[in-house]
Design a protein that fits this description.
Strand 7 (332-343) and strand 8 (350-358) form a beta hairpin. The protein is an alpha+beta fold and 513 residues long. Helix 5 runs antiparallel to helix 8, helix 5 (164-230) runs antiparallel to helix 10 (437-472) and helix 9 packs antiparallel against helix 10 (437-472). The protein has helices at 2-17, 23-26, 58-68, 70-89, 164-230, 236-271, 294-304, 306-328, 364-431, 437-472, and strands spanning 55-56, 93-104, 110-122, 128-136, 144-154, 280-281, 332-343, 350-358. The protein has a 6-stranded antiparallel beta sheet with strand order 2-3-4-5-7-8, covered by helices on one side. A two-stranded parallel sheet has the order 1-6. The longest helix has 68 residues, at 364-431. It has a domain at 56-91 and 161-332 and 371-488: Outer membrane efflux proteins (OEP) (Up-down Bundle), CATH 1.20.1600. It has 10 helices and 8 strands.
């Protein structure tokens, strides 16, 4: 008798132990949700593209794109959907209400009605628990009341981390983590696109200003040549040469003015604003070169890039697939039990407990599944190593590009200074009658080209640093320039103004696992 009681106690203990809550699989680490609290279903509301404001800074441009860019809404939808799936997967219980009415017509017509409820719970250990309460024969005075309880827990195959319930929750959690990382990747892509479009328009405006200055210089040269021709100091060909150069500069100015609206329209499309707006772009970039440490940048990228974390989640999925395939190849040993009681009947309550064993024998399918999972895991790990090499090559390339852009700025700056000297010397020689205006016109043309090259080089250098920050895995939205057009840049060593608050849905840093 004592041995039997001990056996039943052990079996019941195993059943109850199967419902111990595994909190680690239920929760998501806090760092995975940093910065995503602002993403809500309201961000998917259909809106008409708003008109462009009178002035637009780069911070405002980024915030506007994250709010109105239509392509980015797909990323928001994916994040919200995966979050919803994670929320659903954490529900371990299910409640169902049921009812039925039946009329039977034969020699003795009869009616029957029944109603009840069923509550089930699936534990992360693989254990299942259900309670059913049913009222039968509701249309008669002999209503039957039935309560049934069933419990089942796997002990070998399909138990613990290899159970369907645990895998469902783990997959939903991994999917949400992947969505967070993908959100950050897509967000950074959009921010980089906005920065490129914004300063592309700024560059076009600077080129228009430079070309207008070149036209004014050409007009002054024409007027000076006309006066000299009237005074008999130069030949008529000198006036014609100056007029020809003026027409060339005017034609180039027309092309520059045409490119400016095109660049602004591209910016409006990226931001999700009405095409045709011409806001004043108030943010500019100043040339403030920073030293770069190639090895440090590579090391930082290998520790921060979200693509590597996505690869880690893929490896986690492969490990889960291997764990489940191995579990399915094990014998299935389930312990089960139940209790049932029906009132208003002659039978009393009854209960049962037992073991159920199932052993797969010579199953090639199960063995092949284990091998495929092992091969898939090896391949995924190899792909991660290859991804590290791709990231290393990308960062090295971006560092070299940034250094080349910095050199181009320095060369272009020297070119502008030399071109100004050349214009000065050519003007002096022309005034002294030692040279014709050909030298002055050529010097002015060289100055225009040098100024264009310097403006483009400064924008190119800043964009190269943006691409480098993204290649390293930093949030490019957190290091935007704050200089406004017409304002002097902050002195070296003096802290820059605090950046504008991040708009809803932005991420200060890539989530860390």
């Amino acid at each position: 008798m004592k041995t039997r009681r001990l056996l039943w106690s052990v079996l019941l203990g195993l059943l109850l132990a199967g419902f111990v809550r595994q909190a680690a699989a239920q929760e998501l680490p806090k760092q995975w949700s940093v910065g995503q609290e602002g993403v809500t279903p309201k961000d998917l509301t259909v809106t008409t593209p708003p008109p462009a404001p009178a002035e637009l800074s780069i911070q405002e441009a980024v915030a506007t794109a994250l709010r109105y860019n239509v392509g980015f809404r797909q990323t928001i939808n994916s994040l919200l959907t995966s979050n919803l799936g994670w929320w659903v997967a954490k529900q371990r219980w299910d409640l169902t209400l049921f009812g039925a009415v039946e009329r039977t017509v034969n020699d003795a017509t009869a009616n029957s009605a029944a109603a009840g409820a069923a509550l089930s719970y699936a534990a992360l250990t693989g254990a299942d628990f259900s309670v059913t309460a049913e009222l039968d024969q509701l249309d008669s005075e002999e209503t039957a009341q039935t309560v049934a309880v069933t419990v089942r827990r796997p002990l070998l195959g399909g138990s613990g981390r290899a159970s369907d319930a645990y895998e469902q929750l783990r997959r939903a959690r991994t999917g949400y983590r992947s969505a967070l990382l993908s959100f950050f990747v897509q967000e950074q892509g959009l921010v980089e696109q906005v920065i490129g479009a914004y300063f592309g328009a700024v560059e076009q405006q600077q080129l228009v200003d430079i070309q207008d200055a070149s036209v004014r210089r050409a007009e002054a040269s024409v007027e000076d040549a006309r006066l000299r021709l009237e005074g008999g100091l130069i030949a008529e060909i000198d006036l014609t040469r100056a007029q020809l150069r003026l027409t060339q500069d005017q034609s180039a100015a027309v092309l520059r003015r045409q490119s400016m609206p095109d660049a602004m329209d591209r910016l409006m499309r990226v931001l999700g604003l009405q095409v045709g707006g011409m806001p004043k772009l108030v943010t500019t970039v100043s040339y403030q070169p920073k030293p770069l440490d190639l090895e440090a940048e590579v090391a930082q990228a290998l520790g921060r890039r979200p693509e590597l974390r996505l690869s880690d989640l893929t490896i986690e999925n492969r490990l889960a697939a291997l764990r489940i395939s191995r579990s399915r190849a094990l014998p299935s040993l389930d312990i089960f039990g139940g209790w049932r009681d029906t009132r208003n009947t002659d039978s009393g309550p009854n209960w049962n407990v037992g073991l159920e064993l199932s052993v797969p024998v010579a199953s090639r399918v199960l063995r092949a599944a284990v091998q495929e999972a092992q091969w898939g895991l090896l391949l995924t790990r190899q792909l991660r190593e290859d991804l590290k090499q791709d990231i290393t090559a990308e960062v090295r390339s971006q560092v070299r590009a940034a250094e080349a852009a910095r050199s181009n700025v320095e060369i272009a700056s020297q070119g502008v200074e030399l071109a100004k000297l050349s214009v000065h010397f050519a003007q002096r020689l022309l005034e002294e009658g030692l040279r014709t205006n050909r030298d002055l016109l050529d010097a002015q043309d060289d100055l225009t080209r040098s100024e264009v090259s310097l403006a483009q080089s400064k924008i190119s250098y800043y964009l190269s640093t943006v691409r480098l920050r993204r290649a390293v895995g930093l949030d490019v939205a957190q290091d935007l320039p704050t200089e406004r057009a017409g304002e002097a840049p902050a002195p070296q060593g003096q802290p820059a103004p605090a950046p504008a608050p991040s708009p809803p849905g932005t991420t200060p840093e890539a989530p860390k696992p």
